[in-house]
Design goal:
2 domains; two-stranded antiparallel sheet; Leucine Aminopeptidase, subunit E, domain 1; Macro_dom-like; Macro domain-containing protein
Length: 371
């Protein structure tokens, strides 16, 4: 071969290139059809040398959970079908949900963010240390042998809580709260001024605000529905610019979230601006008061017969930017649920966190209650 021919010859695909191509196939086909894909490079990266689809899926899920950056991680979880309610969705539907994470249209996501995501996942696979996560046991009524520090895989998990008045099933969603479907009431964590987070924030408040807004064809917000209605609530029941008592709960419609079965957003004012800086502080007593008030308001509306409310989804109120650690928030929420459900057991209760390690904390808190 001449020197000219050697220089004209196209570069052979690198291992990274092959991984990107194979990950694109996985994204398009979905996890239930993983066995149909030609994934020689991905299979070669499985720690124990086996190439079964289940082993590839476990490795890929571990890699995605370890991605640096919430947007990237959430988009990947939805793209590949690890997020709650996405496993059996079409590639088109999963792409739309991943695009929603970035707040862009599906076509723009395909041309830009999706390419970046596939490359980042491919690089993470190349650097994969080879440790598969322990399997998650959905029903933990009999206890779990999982590592106390292992992240919980994305999706929906049923937990049996041993309350004093009897066992109660709680559903844990490891997913962004705005993607939870089929639940009547979503609870948002707010500050005591009822000022929702900006729509670009990855907080519960900002995510629900963004998801509930009306948008035009290119994704621009035309009506900030939930924030507008919350401001109306403050003008009616409070004083704009002045704080409400910690634990106060306000009610708004779900805005555009009604399309996925949500009937109400209940806003729990639990976070107080810190006197020490720009952050917030949250007292466990405020979280407990807010949880009780959420169920009081939902029950009152249910009694009117206008809206048949039966299910409520709660985040870890006050955790994260609210200044409360996940363990304290989970213990307070679960402990208050025991009191609430003893008095009014006719509720389906869901707990929601997008953080796999916080999800592990929730499971620990629930299972620690078992004798």
């Amino acid at each position: 071969m001449s020197e000219e021919q050697e220089h004209a010859r196209p570069d052979l695909p690198t291992e990274l290139d092959r991984l990107v191509e194979e990950l694109g196939r996985v994204r398009a086909l979905g996890l239930p059809r993983l066995h149909e894909a030609e994934l020689a490079t991905l299979r070669s990266r499985v720690a124990d040398g086996r190439g079964e689809p289940e082993a590839v899926e476990r490795m890929l899920h571990t890699v995605v959970l370890g991605l640096d950056g919430e947007l990237l991680r959430d988009a990947a979880l939805h793209s590949f079908g690890f997020a709650s309610g996405t496993r059996d969705r079409s590639g088109k539907e999963r792409r739309a949900r991943a695009a929603h994470v970035y707040g862009v249209g599906a076509e723009r996501f395909r041309k830009h963010q999706e390419k970046l995501m596939l490359h980042q996942v491919a690089r993470a696979v190349l650097n994969f240390a080879g440790h598969d996560p322990a399997p998650v046991v959905p029903d933990l009524g009999g206890g779990s042998s999982e590592s106390a520090t292992a992240p919980v895989r994305a999706g929906r998990h049923v937990l049996r809580a041993a309350f004093a008045h009897g066992d109660v099933l709680l559903t844990l969603h490891v997913a962004p709260i705005e993607l939870v479907t089929g639940v009547d009431v979503l609870v948002s964590s707010e500050n005591i001024y009822f000022e929702m987070s900006k729509t670009f924030r990855r907080t519960v408040s900002g995510s629900l605000r963004r998801a509930g807004a009306t948008k035009d064809a290119v994704g621009r917000i035309t009506d900030d529905v939930i924030a507008r209605q919350l401001a109306d609530w403050v003008r009616t029941f409070g004083v704009p610019g002045l704080p409400v008592a910690a634990g106060t709960v306000a009610v708004t419609s779900p805005g555009a979230l009604s399309a996925q079965g949500v009937r109400r957003i209940l806003h729990a004012a639990v976070a107080t601006p810190s006197a020490k800086g720009d952050g917030y502080e949250t007292a466990p007593a405020a979280v407990a008061a807010a949880v009780r008030r959420v169920f009081q308001l939902a029950a009152a509306e249910r009694r009117t017969g206008r809206v048949p409310l039966r299910s409520i989804a709660l985040p870890l109120l006050g955790a994260g930017r609210g200044g409360l650690d996940a363990r304290t928030s989970a213990e307070t929420v679960v402990g208050t649920l025991e009191q609430v459900l003893k008095a009014d057991p006719d509720w389906s209760v869901h707990l929601v966190t997008r953080n796999p390690l916080s999800a592990r904390t929730v499971i620990d808190v629930v299972t620690d209650r078992h004798p």
